[in-house]
Amino acid sequence: MACLTRPREGNRVAISDEEAVRFRATVIELLMISHPHDCPVCDEGGECHLQDMTVMTGHVYRRYPYRKRTFENHDLGPFVTHEMNRCIQCYRCLRFYVDYAGGHDFDAFGLRNEVYFGRLRDGALDSEFSGNLVEVCPVGVFDDKTLAAHYTRKWDLQTAPAVCAFCGRGCNTIAGERYGELRRVLNRFNGEVNGYFLCDRGRYAYESVNGAERVRKPIVGLSGLSASELVRGLGARLESALGERRVAVGARPRVARPRPVGIGSPRASLEANFALKRLVGAERFFLGLADGEQTLVERAAELLREGPSPAPTLHDIEAADLVLVLGEDLTNTAPMLDFSVRRWARLRPTVAEERLGIARWNDAGVGAVKKEEPSALWLATTHAGKLDEIAAETFHAAPDDLARFALALAAALDSKGGSRTAGEPPQKSRSAKARSAKRSAADGPSASLTADGPASDGDARLERFAAALRAARRPVVISGVSCGSLALLEAAAALARALPGPPPAAAAPLALVVPEVNSMGLVLLGGGRLSEAFRLAAEGDVEVALVIENDLYRRAPAAQVEAFLKASRTAIVIDHVKTATMAAAAAVLPAASWAEATGTFVSHEGRAQRSFQVMVPPRPVQPTWRWLSALASAARLPAGQNWLRLDDVLAELARERPDLAPAALVAPNADARVADMKIPRQASRYSGRTAMHADVSVFEPTPPDDHDAPLSFSMEGYRDEPPAPLVTRFHAPRWNSVQALNKFQQEVGGPLRGGDPGVRLIEPPAVPTSIPAAAQSSTAVTPSPPRPAAAPSSRPAPPPAFRPALDRLLAVPLHHIYGSEELSMLSPPVAGRAPAAYVALNALDAERLGAREGRPLKVTLDELHLSLPVRIVASLPEGVAGLPVGLPGQPFVALPAELEIEHEDGHA
Amino acid sequence: MSYLRGLWIVFLHLFRRSDTVQYPKEMTYLPPRFRGRIILSRDPDGGERCVACYLCAVACPVDCIALQATEDESGRRYPAWFRINFSRCIYCGFCEEACPTYAIQLTPDTEMSEYARASMVYEKEDLQIAGTGKYHDYNFYRVAGLSIGGKGKGEAENEAPPVDSKRLLP
Ligand code: SF4
Ligand code: SF4
Ligand code: SF4
Ligand code: SF4
C-alpha cells in the first residue's frame, strides 16, 4: 500500500487509476462487513469519515452474507460515549490516547477481527484530553456525550470561530448553537496554538452558557424597570457623579468628590475592558485581578516585552530538544501546553532517528526510537503532576526554592558558557561553581539549595539538570504565575536568558502561563490594583462602582469586597453569570457571554485572537461594551457614546493605544466581504428554518444582522473557503467529517491557508540589548550555537531558602483542570469531575500533625478558619501544604500563604 | 355540418358516466401512495418508528420540518418534539424518501384547509398514528446493531453474539 512506502526519485503515483479506485472500494466494503447499520441513530452521522469514504468509493449494497461481529460497550464517564459495534479497527484512538495523550486506562484488547478498543471496565476516562477521541475516531465509536443530551446534526448547528474562554492558552474552537442553546465545541485547527486538539475543560465547559446560572434580565433592587429605563437612571447617576467631578476638578483639583470607578475583568474581552477604561478614565480603572496575581501577570507581560526570550509557539515547542518546566502544573493550569509537551516528547527529532534514517511520518518507527531514548523533559514544580512520569527528572520544592534552583542553574550555565570565565577549566569543582555563582548574583545560591535533602543530593541534581541544559541547543522554558511566586518568574526568565534560542531569538523561548483567557490582554491594557479601588471607596471617594464580568469575591477577601461594595454606594454589575458580587449591587445588567458576543482576547503568549459571536442572545442581553456605551450615552459622556459596532471600539482602541492596534487587525472587520458576501454561520443544509419558530409565529423572522463581524446568521453567503480567521466549519464538498480540515491547510499538517490566525501583540526586541558585546564576540567562536550570557548583574537575587516551620506550613496553590476555573464549573459535566475542597499535606507533615487522609483538619490562614479534609500528597515538600484554587464556595485566599494548624485536642 | 356534429357529441355526453363528483358529499378515490397529509407511523411492535435522525428535516426543500432528538433510559432514540409547518409544505415526498425507518409517510388525505395559517402547524401529537402506515414489516431497531430496551448486543438481524474481548483463543 502506497501510504507506507517511502517516496523515491522517479516514483510514479497514480491515485485515480482504475485498479486503485477498485482497490479502495474493496477496502471500504471490507470495513463495512460488520457495520451495524445504525447511521440514523449514530451521532457521527453526517460528519463521519467512513460515511464520506463509503459514498466516495460507491459501496452501496451489502454482498457479505455472513453474520456481523458485535461488541459490548463501556460507560466512559460524562464526556465520551462508546459504541464499539461501529469500530473499523483503525487504531487511531489508541495512538492518540495512549501514545500522545499519555493515558493509561485505555487499550486494545483481543485479537484478529475482534480487537476491542476501550477500558478494562466501566469508568470515566482519566485523561484530560479524552474528548479528542470524539474527533480522532473516524466513526461513531466515541462521540460527545454532552452533545447527545441535546443532539443536533453538524449541518443544523449554527457555528462560528471562537476562542476557548477557560484558560490563558487561548485554544481555537468552533462552537455550535441550535434552538438558542450552545450545543457543542469542536477543535479549530491553529498550528501555532493548539493544533488538532483541545482539552476536556475547553470542550465541555460550554454548557455554562446555557446554564441556570445565567443572568438574562436586568436585576434592580425592587422596581421592575425596563432595561432602557434602567440605563437612563444609571446614566443619570453616573452623570451626576462625573458632573460633580468636573466642577470639583475645575475649582479645586485636589479636593476630590466621589466619582465612579471601573473594575475590569480577565474573562471579559479587550473591547469590554477598554470601553470601561474609557468610560471611567484611566486613573479610575482597576484591573480586577487579585493584587498578587496582578503583580505577577504584569511582570510576565514585561518579561515577554523586554525579551530577549520570545514566547514559544507550538512550532517552537515541537522543535525543542529540551523542555524545562518551572513551577507549573501544566496539566491543570494550561492543559493544552501539557498536551503539546507530551506530543513533543513523543515526536521530538532525535539524533538516533537521523542516524537510522527514520522518516518523521513513520509513527511506529519514531515511537520505537523514542522508547530507547532518555526523556528530555525536566520538571521543577511544587508537587507531582501527571507530566512527572515522562520527565527525565523531577524536583519538588517550595516556590522560593524553585526560584533558587533556577537561578543556580543559570549561574551554572554561565560558568560553563565560559564567556566571562574563560580561564576556568571546563570541569569545575564545586567550589569553583559556587564561586562563579557568587559572582553572578549578589546573594549567590549556596551549595545547599534544596530544603528536601542533604546538600550533596541537591548538588548532584543541580549538576544533572545543568548538564542537560548545557547540552541543549534548542531548549524551551515553561513557567508561569500559578505558584504565586514573583521570584520564580524572575528566575525562570533569568534562566531562559542564559540558554540559547533558535535564531534569530537571542535566548531560549520562555512560555509564561497566566490563569485566564484575557489576563494578558487586561494587563497590557493596564490599570490600577483592586486594593487601590478599595482604598478609594474606604476614603469615600467612590460614588458609582462599575464591575464588569467579575466576581470580586474570587479576587479579594470577602470582608474587603463587602466593605468596598457598601462604600461605593451604587454598584453596577454587568455580567452573564450570577455571582456573589451581585448580591450587593444596585443594578445588574445582563451581559452577553463569550458565545454571544464578538471580542478579542489575548492569550498568555501575547497573541490577540478574535472570538466570534455564535448565537444571538434574547434581549436585552448584549455585549458588555454595548451596555457601557449605552451608559455613556445616558450619562452624556463623550467617551464611547457613538460606538455602534465593535469596529468603532477597536478603531478607538487603535487610536489611543498604538501598541494594541494590531488587536484590531486579527480578523477582517465587519465590512469585509468575500465576493461581496458575508460568511454564513449556517451550513447550506441547515434545516427547519420554516418550522422551528412556527409554534410561536408562522411568519419566519428575518435573520438578525451582525454589525460586529463579517459573518451572517443565515445560510446565505460565501460558500467556498473563507479567510482563515473566519472559518465557521470544516467542510468541503463530499467531505462532511472533520477530515475536511485538510482542504483548509496549505498542506496536510501545515498551517491554514492564509496563515494560522492570531497576531502577537508583544514580541521581544529583535536585537537583544542586554547582551554585552564581549559575550557576543565570544559566542561567535564557540562551536555550539550562540549561547547568550545575560549580564549577571541583571539577574535577580535569589530569595532566602524555604525553611519548614514546626507549627505552620506554607500553603501553595493547587490547580485543578476541573474546578479552578470559574465559568467551567457552571457546566455540569465539568463540575461533576471537580474535587471537593481539601488541604493537601506531605506524609511526614501529616504524621507529625496527626492528620489522616480524609479526616478534617482545622486550619487558619489569613484570619480564615477552615476545616478541610486532609489529602496526603506525597510529593509536596516538607513544610508545604497545598490548597485547591478557585473551587466554588471556597473563600478567597491569596496564596502562597502561611497556614496554621489549629490543634483540637481538647474538643474532638 | 360541423356544428351538427358538435351538438351530437355534446348530446351523447349526457349519457356518459360523469367524472365530476359531488365533493365533499362524495369522495374521489386517491391511491395509497398519493402525497397528502404527513403522518408519523409506528413499527410492527407498536413502538415509535421515528428515531429522530433529522434526515427528513435536511431533505425538505422548504425546511418545514423541525424536531429535537432525545433518548430513553435504554438508549432508544426518539423525537422529543416534531413539528411540520404544513403551510410551507409542498408535498414533494422527499421526507418520506429520506426516512430510513419508514416513520414519516405521506397519506392520501388532502383535506387540510384552515382559516389560520397557525393551524397548519402540526406537532408530534398531531402527526402520530397508531399503525404502521403503508409499510407493515420494517422495524429499524431489529436491523440496527444499537442495543435498546428488550434487544441486547448481538440480537439484531444477522448478528453474532458479542465478542468476549478478554478472550485470547485464536
Ligand atoms: S478510532 Fe474508532 S474506529 Fe478507529 S480503532 Fe478506535 S474506536 Fe475503532
Ligand atoms: S488548554 Fe485552556 S484554552 Fe485550551 S482548550 Fe483547554 S481550557 Fe481551553
Ligand atoms: S413533503 Fe416535501 S415539503 Fe413537505 S415536509 Fe416532506 S420534504 Fe418537506
Ligand atoms: S427521517 Fe424518519 S426517522 Fe429520521 S427524523 Fe425523519 S421521520 Fe424520524
Element order, helices and strands of chain B?
A: HEHEEHEEHHE
Name of the top-level CATH class of chain B:
Alpha Beta
Strand content of chain A: 5-15%
> What is the radius of gyration of chain A computed over CA atoms, rounded to a whole number of angstroms?
29 Å
CATH fold node name of chain B: Alpha-Beta Plaits
Number of domains of chain A: 5
Average pLDDT of chain B, rounded to a whole number, is 92
Instruction: Kindly provide the radius of gyration of chain B, computed on alpha-carbon positions and rounded to a whole number of angstroms.
Output: 24 Å
CATH class of the largest domain in chain A: Alpha Beta
Number of alpha- plus pi-helical segments of chain B: 5
Give the neighbour order of strands across the main sheet of chain B: 2-3-5
Percent range of helical residues of chain A: 25-40%
Hey, roughly how much beta strand do the residues of chain B contain? 15-25%
Describe this structure in words.
The complex is a heterodimer of chains A (908) and B (170). With 908 residues, chain A is of the alpha/beta class. Chain A contains 26 helices and 28 strands. Chain A is globular. Chain B has a single domain (38-156), classed as Alpha-Beta Plaits, CATH 3.30.70. In chain B, 18% of the residues lie in helices and 16% in strands. Chain B has 5 helices and 6 strands; from the N terminus they run αβαββαββααβ. Chain B has helices spanning 2-13, 55-59, 94-98, 124-127, 140-143; strands spanning 38-40, 65-71, 77-85, 104-106, 121-122, 159-162. In chain B, the strands form 2 sheets. Chain B has a 3-stranded antiparallel β-sheet with strand order 2-3-5. Chain B has a two-stranded antiparallel ribbon with strand order 1-4. Chain B is elongated, with a radius of gyration of 24 Å. The interface between A and B is large, with 46 and 50 residues.
Q: What's the arrangement of secondary structure elements?
A:
The complex is a heterodimer of chains A (908) and B (170).
Chain A: H1 18-31, H2 49-57, E1 68-70, H3 92-100, E2 107-109, E3 116-118, H4 133-136, H5 145-148, E4 158-163, E5 172-178, E6 181-187, H6 200-204, E7 219-220, H7 227-251, E8 259-263, H8 270-280, E9 285-286, H9 291-306, H10 314-318, E10 322-326, H11 330-333, H12 335-347, H13 351-356, H14 363-372, E11 377-381, E12 393-396, H15 399-417, H16 430-440, H17 455-471, E13 475-480, H18 486-497, E14 510-513, H19 519-525, H20 530-538, E15 542-548, H21 558-567, E16 570-575, E17 587-590, E18 599-602, E19 607-611, H22 624-634, H23 646-656, E20 679-680, E21 711-712, E22 759-760, H24 773-781, E23 808-814, H25 828-831, E24 839-841, H26 843-849, E25 856-861, E26 864-872, E27 880-884, E28 897-901
Chain B: H1 2-13, E1 38-40, H2 55-59, E2 65-71, E3 77-85, H3 94-98, E4 104-106, E5 121-122, H4 124-127, H5 140-143, E6 159-162
Antiparallel strand pairs in B: 1-4, 2-3, 3-5
The complex binds iron/sulfur cluster (4 copies).
